[in-house]
Amino acid sequence: MKLWLTLYIHEWKENKNMFLFVLMVNLGLVCVGAYYYAPDDMMKMVPALVPFFFALIICVIAPPFILSRSFANERRSHTLYLRFALPVSLSASSLCKYLAIASMGCVLYGVVFLGLYLMDSQLMSMGELRVNVLPLFLGYLIFWLSIAFVMSALKVTLKRFHGLVSGLFFMASMILFFRLKIEMTMMFTEQNPLTDGWLPAVYGLVLLGIGLLLFEKRAEVG
Prior knowledge:
The chain contains nine helices and no strands. The chain has helices at residues 2-14, 16-36, 42-48, 50-77, 90-119, 121-124, 127-157, 162-187, 193-221.
């Protein structure tokens, strides 16, 4: 357990500069939205929420970028091979990286949510925001992180054509996901958490398992 915690903290330290940059961007967007927010004026309130919308999008797309960049830096500097000497498997250490960067996304989301709550607690107490936003965020965070994780695993595992295979995997996974989402939407005509948040989360967890298997395969090859 202590080794896992050490690896987790190490990944935070390795990616702290990029995380702090994204955090500052999000804080800037939150401040801009809070400055222009006027709860009594609908014409001003709606445009003021636009920065918060972009901040939430950054919370979802920034962690996959940080994850891909971290693996790419390890490949370029050849420090990936140092993880073979750890007393845990390559897939386990890669999972620590995944969890550390996923927690960064949760911190970014917490900053945006806290900003919205401090700005207007009545707005954040609305059932729609309270019930649906968090599952939606977590679902798509897992989804995009897992896609980036598998693409990084393919680049580590394959010696040739890894860029082409990663691109084909991305297109195939997106097509399959949207087909599943359409099928779920047709099965459940009313809005439900399954298609909004849980479907991308479950789909992402399946992809995470595939990525872990690929890293384990890479460790066996050596």
